[in-house]
Design goal:
This protein is α/β, with parallel strands linked by helices. Helices cover about 50% and strands about 15% of the residues. It has four domains: about 60 residues, no CATH class; about 190 residues, no CATH class; about 210 residues, no CATH class; about 290 residues, 3-Layer(aba) Sandwich (Rossmann fold), CATH 3.40.50.
């Protein structure tokens, strides 16, 4: 039949072999699970838990009308931008600095365990107020030991090579250290007394944090996301090793952001009211002067009431022109104020709102003012995210400067137009005043002058009343402004850490261990190259299998005779089957030579020789065992005798055969040891004396069993194999490599050895069906079925053999049952 080529890796799916390897790898599986689970335990034991807490806020529109009144409606625009601007403000370093500065984070307190240091946020029995003069103390653990209720000791070292600072201080005494001054107060003396008892195990220490680094410490763990654009909600969350600290930070952010909106609106309103107050002061002085001039004129001319003007139309026009001139002058004053503020490079949005709050401009000036306001707004929002020196701020400043230049040009043009308009109105006013000042009598003059003074008073009074009304409106709006931030869900102190999660860690560790175990099993299966059963032999060679020998359960230091102690054992029966099968190879009368070899040492050829000889001797045949392994002799060890003379001394002519034959404890079983190790074993095996020796011994014994050296290492035993009637090649299950089968094929093809047969030794005698599931015949070369005899004896003899009688039948392993189920229900159906 066509033989299968031996591959370096397993190309077939063999479930039983896979499960066999899995069973042999159980110790590795247990090791992987144990070591990785232990690693997970250590990780959980010495990893600080990480907590997370969150709060949800809503940006309401309750102050929309008030914002318009205050002129702050541009601080937040549409819903999407409003949420993003709020998100940017909360995440900004400036805002976080305001929040964190209000929390007790300037000094961190710890107690030291065996491996980890645990923070005592708001639970430390003492507080530290530090005034630092040298920044090198930041981040350095400063240990504190309370010696008594009134005394403590500080000690620290800024580096391994630096000199250690150590000094005692009184409780009410300021601790002066080289880097500053510390004021330490006890807040829980009872807890200190408790800590006194365990100070040898747990040390207290604190760290003064660098104020410039506090924000950068907590901002990476802060998350601000838009929860819902439709409902205008934002979720604020933070992660920290201390749950109370995490809760305080989130709630402080919410409260501070509530205050932020109110403060900004109040800042804008205050700027507007301050501007109105300045205007009121100026207008009040003018109004007071107008009223005084009118009163003085009345007293001087003894006038109690206004006399009807003889020229009502003329004076009405004069009054209109004067009103227009006052409006122009007010507008010019506003333009002057805007120009003054435009010269200030640090102008902000709130100052700009205050400047233009009570002024109205048309045309290009209004557009440029709106553009400058928008740019200033963007800058104000961006400053909460980046520094003043960032590229984005520089770009905005460049755009603002361009718009300011354009605005200045527009103001210049508007001022020119206002000047021309004012000049035209003054010209008309002069004309009408000329008409009104035509020569008239004194009474008529007094009437005209009184009308003029009354008009000036009325104009100033109207403007003053308008400013008073605006001030009242802004004051009421400012008083009614509340925060637009609503806390929908406040933060709570978390009780369960988000990391590490013990269940997930243990599950993951076991999963990793199983994956590694499966990987190991799969790798061992993929590159498994050992012979485990007869099937691994017959797939690669047509050389017949003489039989198999079960593995001996007990440990034996050297190959020795055991069939005489348990003649009904499985091993004895398997050797009887081999003895029977030998008859199918050659059944001719006369003495026979059995020559046994293997590929490498340790495959059990000496064990097979000794015990097969014993089984043959039980059949009343005279048997002689000869040790032809002159390099590494073992027969003398198996029989427990010395190796002073033997085959080597016979071949060298120092002794004859009779002098070297020794008797065993079994009748009809003799043996000749290898003798002293010669310097030239190969040459001795090729001499004529070896042929003569075998011829002489064949005349005295029915069977001569020769233990040859491994044929895969040396060729000393080649001659005896060629002369043998029964050449036997021994493989050992789970030890011999599959590639060794090719050596047998090559040996037959190159040397022409006839009747070579194979014996598989040390097969696992389990009940999985893997090792003994099949029987193989000798019919390929000789047409006999001697493999059946062995299969019958082993398969149906339970309860007869010594091992089975002394030891009850063992239950199948779980892996065996799985293997049987897969084989019966999957592979057989396929």
């Amino acid at each position: 039949m066509a033989l299968k080529k031996i591959s370096n890796i397993n190309e077939e799916i063999d479930v039983k072999l896979f499960l066999l390897i899995a069973r042999k790898s159980l110790i590795y599986i247990v090791f992987f699970v144990g070591i990785i689970t232990f690693g997970a335990f250590i990780y959980l034991r010495y990893t600080l838990p990480l907590y997370s807490t969150s709060a949800t806020i809503q940006i309401s529109s309750n102050n929309e009308q008030l914002s318009k009144t205050l002129g702050t409606q541009n601080v937040f625009n549409d819903s999407y931008n409003e949420l993003n601007q709020a998100k940017g403000i909360i995440s900004s370093s400036v805002f976080l600095a305001q929040v964190l500065n209000k929390l007790p984070l300037k000094v961190s307190y710890f107690y030291e365990g065996r491996i980890l240091a645990y923070e005592q946020y708001k639970t430390a029995p003492y507080t530290v107020d530090a005034k630092v003069t040298e920044s090198s103390i930041y981040g350095i653990p400063i240990y504190i030991k309370f010696i008594s209720k009134n005394k403590y000791k500080l000690y620290y070292s800024k580096s391994k090579d630096a000199k250690k600072f150590e000094k005692e201080f009184n409780i009410n005494q300021k601790a002066i250290i080289p880097e500053g001054e510390l004021n330490i107060k006890i807040v829980n003396s009872g807890k200190i007394d408790y800590n006194q008892g365990i100070l040898n195990q747990n040390s207290l220490f604190f760290i003064i944090n660098n104020p410039d680094n506090i924000v950068s410490t907590y901002s990476p763990n802060l998350s601000v996301i838009i929860a819902s654009e439709e409902s205008k909600t934002i979720q604020i969350s933070i992660k920290d090793n201390d749950p109370v600290k995490a809760n305080d930070i989130v709630n402080s952010i919410v409260e501070e952001f509530k205050i932020y909106g109110v403060q900004k609106a109040a800042e804008s309103a205050n700027n507007i009211l301050q501007f109105i107050d300045n205007q009121l002061k100026q207008v009040y002085d003018t109004l007071f002067k107008s009223e005084a001039d009118l009163d003085n004129f009345k007293k001087e001319h003894n006038i109690d009431s206004v006399i009807n003007s003889p020229l009502p139309n003329v004076y009405t026009r004069i009054n209109d022109f004067e009103n227009q001139i006052v409006v122009i002058e007010i507008e010019e004053a506003s333009l002057t104020e805007i120009e003054k503020n435009l010269k200030n490079k640090d102008i902000d949005i709130y100052t700009m709102i205050a400047v233009v709050a009570s002024s109205q401009f048309e045309g290009a000036v209004s557009g440029f003012i709106s553009e400058v306001q928008n740019l200033l707004l963007k800058k104000e929002q961006l400053l909460y995210e980046v520094t003043k020196n960032s590229g984005q701020i520089e770009a905005l400043n460049y755009q603002i400067e361009i718009q300011k230049k354009l605005l200045k040009e527009a103001i210049k043009t508007l001022r020119t137009n206002l000047t021309e308009k004012k000049a035209t109105i003054n010209k008309f006013l002069t004309d009408y005043q000329t008409i009104a000042s035509a020569p008239i009598d004194k009474e008529k003059y007094n009437t005209l002058e009184l009308s003029r003074l009354q008009r000036m008073y009325s104009i100033n009074e109207g403007f003053y009343n308008k400013l008073v009304q605006q001030k009242a409106e802004y004051s009421i709006s400012r008083a009614g402004y509340v925060s637009s931030v609503i806390a929908l869900e406040n933060s709570k102190v978390p009780s369960i850490p988000i990391s590490p999660k013990s269940r997930m860690i243990y599950f993951g560790s076991i999963l990793i261990a199983l994956i590694l175990s499966l990987g190991l099993i799969f790798t061992r299966y993929l590159f498994f190259n050992e012979i485990t059963s007869i099937s691994d032999i017959v797939k690669y060679t047509n050389i017949p299998v003489l039989g198999i020998i079960p593995k001996y359960k007990k440990s034996i230091p050297v190959s020795q005779l055991i069939v005489n102690h348990k003649p009904k054992s499985l091993i004895a029966e398997s050797l009887r089957s081999i003895r029977t099968n030998l008859q199918f190879i050659s059944n001719e009368p006369g003495p026979k030579i059995i020559s046994v070899t293997s590929t490498i040492s340790g495959e059990g050829k000496t064990f097979v020789c000794i015990n097969l000889s014993g089984i043959i001797a039980f059949s009343e045949k005279k048997v002689l065992v000869m040790d032809f392994d002159l390099r590494k002799p073992k027969i003398h060890l198996g029989f427990g005798v010395e190796n002073k003379k033997g085959v080597s001394t016979i071949l060298m002519g120092l002794n004859n055969a009779e002098e070297c034959i020794q008797h065993s404890t079994i009748v009809n079983l003799d043996f000749i040891t290898a003798g002293p190790i010669p310097p030239n074993p190969s040459e001795l095996m090729l001499t004529k004396r070896m042929v003569d020796l075998l011829g002489y011994l064949k005349s005295k014994y029915d069977f001569i069993v020769i233990d040859n050296p491994p044929i895969g290492i040396v060729t000393d035993g080649m001659e005896s194999l060629l002369m043998a009637d029964y050449p036997i090649y021994v493989f050992k299950a789970n030890h011999s490599k599959r590639i060794f089968v090719q050596n047998v094929e090559r040996l037959v093809n190159e040397t022409g050895i006839k009747k070579l047969a194979i014996v598989l030794n040390a097969v696992e005698s389990n009940h999985s069906g893997y090792s003994y599931g099949k029987g193989y015949s000798y019919g390929a070369g000789y047409g006999y079925g001697y493999g059946y005899g062995y299969g019958y004896a082993y398969g149906y003899g339970y309860g007869y053999y010594d091992e089975d009688h002394l030891k009850p039948r063992r239950k199948k392993f779980l892996l065996d049952r799985i293997s049987d189920f897969i084989t019966k229900n999957i592979f057989r159906k396929a």
